[in-house]
Write a structure and sequence with these properties.
By secondary structure, this protein is an alpha/beta fold. The chain is 41% helix and 18% strand. It contains 16 helices and 16 strands. The strands form four sheets. An eight-stranded parallel beta sheet has the order 4-14-13-12-11-10-6-5. Strands 1-2-3 form a three-stranded antiparallel beta sheet. It is globular, with a radius of gyration of 21 Å. The relative contact order is 0.14. It binds one RNA strand through α5, β14 and α12.
Length: 406
RNA sequence: GUGGCCGUAGCUCAGUCGGUAGAGUCCCAGAUUGUGAUUCUGGUUGUCGCGGGUUCGAGCCCCGUCGGCCACC
């Protein structure tokens, strides 16, 4: 992986990530495909929304179907028929989300499998091994996603554990990527994403050493965040992520952490804000130096009839849309908005029809990519601050502004 | 004609020993941030078929009546 900084506007950055499998324009949003699928979408549809990279999950794929099965079937890319880059989460988020089913020790985390109750041990080494077996283009360090709220003492303990695990992940990763790393990674492969046939995939895996990202923890404490970053940069990573956010804290707290740490991240590496967020979160985080995002919000909310539009949030389930013949978002040119009425989407949602989830997800992903496109254009335009002010003042940037039909 | 069973929320039904009614669904609204999500949370809705009686008090007990279903003549 290669990261190229194209333009900067304040702390906002316009960049490009180059992988053997393709290029990612940043700031970028990565749809979440936990189980090797972006729920309700075919990969071609996801690609059609403008997405250039997906997120997959170590924990879930390790349990089912198992990383060896995926490896034998040609790696995650071929398995799920997505030929672009994939970032895999390490399982660190499940340390938080499955908190009732696990026990943390220095060695790693013991989980009770949510699939069948089996006891499994996930260590930094094991997580890296699994991510390599899956064929990830970006491998995330195994971390503990610090719960919220946490006392400074708890956050410190958690951050220090994540930092030690980060170093172990680096060692494990390097053992699996013997070749020269960094600039040589994209050697001779160019940025063509179209390996359509798929025959070339195993080869591509071999010739594409994956990147390893470290994760900054430290809860809501500025000092701990800085210390975490310091430790990570001493170890050295291909990219730096901010973890432990969007776990229940307020927007103010989130922005406070970003203000404290965002622009202090190594400038020559990509900056990834994990698990965030709402459209206004994205816009604001870019202003603080973030290049990459992932979030389940557009996909999960779509399945629940919570749709993002240029005019703000539309809860398509609400009876107000029952007889509304207008498109969901008049300023959107996605397949859903071009061909269907709000009344029809409302109908599908009420009937719990599968197509409703599909059309809604397609739109939300399209909208998110559209926001990213506008963000990138705004950075290129040279007045990102104006864009932020404009966006936050508009219905789509509002805290919670349901678009009530006239 | 005789006997039995059943009438409770828009729908399907529960309701103990008599203490002025609940569930699911539907409907209305909300939540969702590195997916344990086709998920979760909250809310509205009653002539307890109708009329009498007993009782301090009846969805429940008694009488009558209307409607539906079943069995037998």
């Amino acid at each position: 992986m290669k990261f190229q900084l194209i333009q900067q506007c304040g702390h906002a950055r316009r960049g490009r990530l180059t992988f053997a499998r393709g290029t990612v324009e940043t700031p970028a949003f990565m749809p979440v495909g936990t189980y090797g699928t972006v729920k309700a979408m075919k990969p071609e549809e996801v690609r059609g929304t403008g997405a250039q990279i997906l997120l997959g999950n170590t924990f879930h794929l390790m349990l089912r179907p198992g990383e060896q099965a995926v490896r034998e079937l040609g790696g995650l890319h071929r398995f799920m028929h997505w030929d672009g880059p994939i970032l895999t989460d390490s399982g660190g988020f499940q340390v938080w989300s499955l908190s009732g089913l696990r026990k943390i020790t220095e060695e790693g985390v013991k989980f009770a499998s949510p699939v069948n109750g089996d006891r499994i041990l996930l260590t930094p080494e094991r997580s890296i091994e699994v991510q390599h077996a899956l064929g990830a283009d970006i491998v995330m360090q195994f971390d503990e996603c610090t719960p919220y709220p946490a006392t400074e003492q708890q956050a410190r303990k958690s951050m220090e554990l994540s930092a030690r695990w980060a170093a172990r992940c680096k060692t494990a990763h390097e053992a699996l990527v013997p070749e020269t790393r960094g600039g040589a990674s994209a050697r001779g492969l160019g940025p063509q994403p179209q390996a359509r046939g798929g025959q070339g995939l195993p080869l591509a895996v071999l010739e594409s050493p994956s990147a390893l990202f470290g994760i900054v923890q430290g809860g809501m404490y500025e000092g701990l965040r800085r210390e975490s970053l310091q430790r990570l940069t001493e170890t050295g990573f291909d990219g730096y992520a901010l973890g432990g956010l969007s776990v229940g804290e307020s927007e103010d707290e989130r922005l406070h952490v970003l203000d404290a740490i965002g622009h202090g991240l190594p400038p020559d590496r990509p900056h990834y804000l994990m698990g965030v967020g709402t459209p206004r979160d994205l816009v604001q985080a870019v202003a603080r130096g973030i290049d990459m995002f992932d979030c389940v919000m557009p996909t999960r909310n779509a399945r629940n009839g919570h749709l993002f539009t240029h005019a703000g949030v539309v809860r398509i389930r609400n009876s107000a849309h029952k007889t509304d013949g207008r498109p969901l978002d008049e300023r959107c040119d996605c397949y859903t908005c071009r061909n269907y009425s709000r009344a029809y989407l409302h109908h599908l949602d009420k009937c719990k029809e599968i197509l409703g989830a599909q059309l809604n997800t397609l739109h939300n992903l399209h909208y998110y990519q559209n926001v990213m496109q506008r963000i990138r254009a705004a950075v290129e335009g040279g007045d990102y601050a104006a864009f932020v002010a404009d966006f936050l003042g508009s219905p789509e940037g509002g805290q919670a502004s349901p678009a009530v039909p006239a």
